[in-house]
Each structure stands twice: as C-alpha cells, then as structure tokens.
C-alpha cells in the first residue's frame, strides 16, 4: 500500500506542486516512510523533491519553490519490497528514453525474473532493491523498442501492453513523460486502486487528476471521476487544448477482477469510494456481520457471560465498532484515547518502534473498563502487536473479561501485494487455533469475521471477487517459488545493516562483507534517482 497521485493543470503557467502537496495530505495514511514529488516544466525538464519522512517534513516551502511546471506526480511510500532507504523513495526517474518518472503502488511477484531480463537482455542498470525501479525500467525498455525520436499515444499504449504481458503482480501507477504528459495505468487484475477525474475551470478549460483514492479528487473539486479499469491506461497530454484530451485504452484484456479486500478492511480512508464500493459502508456492514457472529459464538462458549461495553481500537475500527455495538444493543464507549500526533503503527518500519508506539498512541480510561466485560473491536489482527498491548492495557484498567473481535478473518498468510510481511511466522495467527490466538494476545476469547461474510460486506453487482490471499494463501496472480524467500533475504540483510549501524552509530568493522556490498545509504546518492532532500 502506497499513495500515488498525478495532476495536469490546464493553465500552463500554474505550478502543479502546491496542489500535489495538498493532495498527498489526503493520502498520508497509505505511506508514512517516504514522500516525493516530481514536476515537469515547460522546457520538458523534471524537478524533484523526495526523501524519508512524512509529506509535511519532506515538502518544505523552500523545496516546493523549486518544483515548477503545470504537471507532476507524487508518491507516499510504505516499503513492501526492498528497504526503507532514502534511495528507494519515489518517484523513480530514468533519463532514457525521453525522460520518465514513475510512482508505483503494489508489489511485483516476478521481480527476480524481470531484473534478470533487464540485465541480460536489455542491459539496464538497476540501482536499488525496489521493484518499482524494475517496473519503470521495463516500461522504458518497451518504449525503447519503437526506436523513435518521439512517441505517440499509440506507442505508449502498445508499450504498456508489453509491460502488462511480462510483469506479474499488483501495480497501480502514475507516470510522467517529459514534455508529453501524465499516464495512469492499473494491473490487469485491478488489485490496487486508481481513479481518474476532471475539474472544469471558469474559463471552460479542464484540469485532470489520477489518484489512489477518491477522497483526494473529491476534496479538490474534481468530479466526473471514475476508476481506471483493470488492464486499462489513460494518457493525459500536458496541454489539453485545441481538441487534445485524455485518451483511455484497454491495453490488455482484463483478467479476473480482484481488488484487494484489505483496502476496505484497513488501507483506505473510510470516506473513499473505490471501484464503486464505499469503504465506510463496507465497514458498517463488517460491524453488522461481526455482531451476529459474536452473538452466536458467545452463546456457545460463554453462555453465562454478557458483554457490558463495546470499545473500538482507534482509528480504523471505529466505523465497524459503532455498528457492532448498535447491532449487539450494547453501549459503545471510546475507552482508548488516541494521541493525535502518532501515526499508523502497523506501517512503521520496525517492530520495536511499532510496539512502543501502541502505548504512546492509545491510552486506556479506567472508568470505561473497570469491572466490565469488554468487547474490543479492531479491523484486523496481523502481527498481534496492537492487540497484545491493548488487551494488557484493558486488564490494567480493571476490565473483568476482555473479548477481542476482528472485522477480518484470521491472517495466516503473507500479503504479497502490499503489506511489509515476508515471514508468516510473524503473524500471530500463523499455525494457531482461535483459542491459541486468544492465549497469545492475552484475551479471554477472540471472534473473527468469516471470509464469506467479509466478501458479502464489500461486493457489488459489478465487483464480486476480491484478492483474499492473506486469508487463504492462494493469490490471484500466483507467486514465483523463490519470491517470498528473496524478500525475506533482503529484509534480513537490511535488518542486520540497521542493527550494526544503530549499535555503532555508523557501520562498524565487524559487519558481514556480504552486507556491505549492498549498503543502503540514508541519503540518496545516485545521480538518476537524485533527491533534493539532504
Ligand atoms: O496486529 P497488528 O500487527 O498490530 O496490526 C493490526 C493493527 O494495525 C493497524 O492499526 P494502525 O495503528 O496501523 O492504524 P489505525 O490508527 O488506522 O488503526 C490496524 O488497524 C490494527 O489496529
Ligand atoms: N506499498 C507499496 O505500494 C510499495 C511500492 C513498492 N513495492 C515499494 O516498496 O516501494
Ligand atoms: Mg488500528
């Protein structure tokens, strides 16, 4: 999960950067690790600012002043392949052919094979462990095949067809071609979301936006918006006038349409509508279905007990928890107060930080817990970091019995398209029964949503299937045999590097030579990924 956004403004004299900055503020929840903006000026030159940190820290006023041009793209990163090094912040850039910048949301499951192809067949240099850099170079190599000094829309659509034929996995992308325009495209299964919208100006001209979530489009006055379809691309020319306008093309036939159900469970903002499905309404339904499950299960396991109060685990579960309480006819109380200055803990880069952040983020009010049987409701239990701490805090605050309900079914498999989890052993539900999970997090009982119920909460007449591999272990694109092992290897290597540098204040002499050959600088040092965040 990352946030991506692209804008082309009709007025060629207006800079897109301020609106790109405003826009990423609506997508920050999709990635807290790194942020980047690239714009393109009237002479076809790119301007870029990217680095580790939240958008508001990376995009300072002085850096923004350098970003000129009426079109641009952005990225908010939650690293899911490679590492969180500054050199892997996006957008990525290649100078040949034509000058291309790319922002990518998703993961490529055949990145190892693609990297080999780039090296051995088309001789392109890959400078990081990011699969997004691979994707950019595959697109560049496809465009190169035309061997033209200038490409047209048809060439770009054909090149994207070539990309979609060889690349497997999840990818929603915004791309900027120097002096040409902004391109949006979505993988043939539509795993990650992408929307397109138009905003009419007073003089009749039109601005265009492509973004990960509808909330950005809506907030910026873009209407007439729609989802990019699986396997579809849109090209927005840099100068939409004199009859020039965006062009859509179904570049490859769509495959099984399977948006990631985790967008509805956790990733997306509740006020977004993705693929015609309201995230908010789906979460309300999750609360309803969960309540009927709980009533049934509690009757069997604890017939003598009753739930006194429903308490959400802020923030994401709130919508479902309220509805769950209404359905159960039990009072809803905000027993945990959230510190508004702490971000999402799940997408923080390391376990130690995640664990301490849960306590800093949430504080229990004794008055709401003391002497009561509480039902804590969360959207999901993944590593169990949050639930373990939360249950302990509820008990410390005097709760009698603590039941823990999850709006998603048990997560027992990797999420290969967008959660930073290579090791299934890190999942609290891995190889455990529900009672063992309850014991592991210290709860008296856990309640899980059924998968069929979760699908029912989200589906519509036009979207019936979802990517649910995280619950079943079966993924819509399949996975290369060694893909997960390779991700694990890179992660372990990054962790060793980090441990060494944390201990010594810098890389120490005892570090394994194998690690040193792949050192990840915090500050971006490569010329073609040049950042201004120093
Ligand atoms: O089992 P875990 O590994 O702890 O992961 C699950 C938790 O992480 C997320 O919260 P997060 O703090 O990221 O964001 P939120 O404030 O949007 O709920 C999610 O909403 C769960 O609470
Ligand atoms: N979460 C994402 O979409 C990440 C995109 C890409 N795989 C990266 O790690 O940078
Ligand atoms: Mg949460």
UniProtKB/TrEMBL annotation:
Reactions catalysed: 5-phospho-beta-D-ribosylamine + L-glutamate + diphosphate = 5-phospho-alpha-D-ribose 1-diphosphate + L-glutamine + H2O
Cofactors demanded by this protein: Mg(2+)
Residue ranges of domain Glutamine amidotransferase type-2 in the record: 2-239
Cofactor descriptive note: Binds 1 Mg(2+) ion per subunit.
Gene3D superfamilies per UniProt: 3.40.50.2020, Glutamine Phosphoribosylpyrophosphate, subunit 1, domain 1 (3.60.20.10)
InterPro entries in alphabetical order: GATase_2_dom (IPR017932), Ntn_hydrolases_N (IPR029055), PRTase-like (IPR029057), PRTase_dom (IPR000836), PurF (IPR005854), PurF_N (IPR035584)
Pfam families: GATase_6, Pribosyltran
GO BP terms: 'de novo' IMP biosynthetic process; purine nucleobase biosynthetic process
The keyword NADP belongs to this UniProt entry's keyword annotation: no
Keywords on record: Glutamine amidotransferase, Glycosyltransferase, Magnesium, Metal-binding, Purine biosynthesis, Transferase
Any one GO MF annotation of this record: metal ion binding
Active site: 2
Annotated pathway: Purine metabolism; IMP biosynthesis via de novo pathway; N(1)-(5-phospho-D-ribosyl)glycinamide from 5-phospho-alpha-D-ribose 1-diphosphate: step 1/2
Protein name as catalogued: Amidophosphoribosyltransferase
């Amino acid at each position: 999960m990352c946030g991506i956004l692209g804008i082309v403004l009709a007025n060629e004299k207006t800079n897109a950067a301020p609106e790109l900055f405003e826009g990423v503020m609506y997508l920050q929840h999709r990635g807290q690790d790194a942020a980047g903006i690239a714009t393109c000026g009237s002479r076809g030159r790119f301007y870029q600012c990217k680095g580790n940190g939240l958008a508001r820290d990376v995009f300072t006023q002085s850096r923004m002043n350098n970003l000129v041009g009426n079109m641009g793209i952005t990225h908010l990163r939650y690293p899911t392949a490679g590492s969180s090094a500054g050199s892997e912040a996006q957008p990525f850039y290649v100078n040949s052919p034509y000058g291309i910048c790319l922002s990518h949301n998703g993961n490529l499951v055949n990145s190892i094979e693609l990297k080999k192809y780039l090296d051995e067949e088309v001789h392109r240099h890959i400078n990081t462990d990011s699969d997004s850099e691979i994707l950019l170079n595959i697109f560049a190599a496809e465009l190169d095949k035309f061997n033209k000094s200038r490409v047209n829309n048809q060439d770009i659509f054909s090149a994207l067809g070539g990309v979609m034929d060889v690349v497997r996995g999840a990818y929603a992308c915004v791309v900027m071609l120097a002096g040409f325009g902004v391109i949006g495209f979505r993988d043939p299964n539509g795993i990650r979301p992408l929307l397109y919208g138009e905003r009419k100006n007073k003089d009749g001209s039109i601005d265009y936006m492509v973004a990960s979530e509808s909330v950005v489009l809506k907030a910026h006055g873009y209407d007439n918006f729609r989802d990019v379809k699986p396997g579809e691309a849109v090209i927005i020319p840099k100068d939409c006038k004199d009859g020039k306008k965006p062009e859509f093309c179904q570049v490859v036939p769509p495959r099984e349409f399977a948006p990631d159900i985790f967008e509805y469970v956790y990733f997306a903002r509740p006020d977004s509508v993705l693929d015609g499905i309201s995230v908010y309404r789906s979460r309300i339904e999750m609360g309803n279905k969960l309540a009927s499950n709980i009533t049934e299960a509690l009757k069997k396991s604890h017939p003598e007990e009753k739930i006194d109060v429903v308490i959400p685990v802020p923030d994401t579960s709130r919508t479902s928890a309220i509805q769950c309480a209404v359905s159960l006819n039990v009072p809803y109380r905000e027993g945990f107060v959230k510190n508004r200055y702490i971000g999402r803990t799940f997408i923080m880069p390391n376990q130690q930080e995640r664990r301490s952040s849960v306590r800093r983020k949430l504080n229990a009010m004794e008055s709401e817990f003391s002497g009561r049987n509480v039902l804590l409701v969360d959207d999901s239990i993944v590593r169990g970091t949050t639930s373990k701490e939360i249950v302990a805090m509820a008990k410390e605050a005097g709760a009698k019995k603590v039941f823990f309900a999850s709006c998603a079914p048990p997560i027992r498999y990797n999420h290969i398209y967008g959660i930073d989890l290579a090791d299934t052993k890190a999942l609290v539900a891995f190889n455990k029964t529900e009672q063992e999970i309850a014991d592991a997090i210290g709860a008296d009982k856990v309640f899980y949503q059924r998968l069929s119920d979760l699908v029912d909460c989200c589906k519509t007449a036009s979207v019936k299937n979802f990517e649910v591999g995280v619950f079943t272990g079966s993924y819509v694109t399949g996975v290369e045999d060694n893909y997960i092992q390779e991700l694990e290897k890179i992660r372990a290597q990054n962790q060793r590097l980090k441990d060494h540098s944390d201990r010594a204040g810098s890389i120490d002499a005892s570090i394994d030579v194998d690690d040193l050959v792949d050192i990840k600088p915090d500050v971006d040092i490569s010329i073609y990924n040049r950042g201004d965040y120093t």
